[in-house]
Write a structure and sequence with these properties.
The protein is α+β, with helices and mostly antiparallel strands. It contains one helix and five strands. A hairpin with a 2-residue loop joins strand 3 and strand 4.
């Protein structure tokens, strides 16, 4: 009888711990993850990918520039500081 009481207390404690842990992660008990902030699109991120800018690609690797940093503006790959893309190698084109 005494062990059942402790078992019930243990179950309640573990349940509370799980709820607190999920709230601390920002998940809560909601279908959408429970976070109070919605992810929003930022400029030049090519969709809702957590706010990270979309990077031009040479096949499966990130493209590099001779000057400046690579980015995708309006769906087209560009280099900052009037730079040019370094050669991808072969017939591979730079894509966004």
């Amino acid at each position: 009888m005494m062990s059942q009481r402790y078992f019930k207390l243990l179950v309640v404690f573990l349940g509370l711990f799980a709820m607190i842990a999920s709230i601390a992660e920002g998940k809560g008990r909601h279908k959408n993850g429970g976070g109070s902030r919605k992810k929003t699109n930022t400029v030049n991120n090519g969709g809702n990918n957590g706010g990270k800018p979309k990077v031009p690609m040479c096949g499966t690797t990130a493209a590099t520039c001779s000057k400046g940093s690579p980015s995708c503006k309006g769906g087209k790959p560009t280099c900052g500081s009037k730079g040019a893309f370094n050669a991808c190698g072969g017939n591979v084109k730079v894509t966004c």
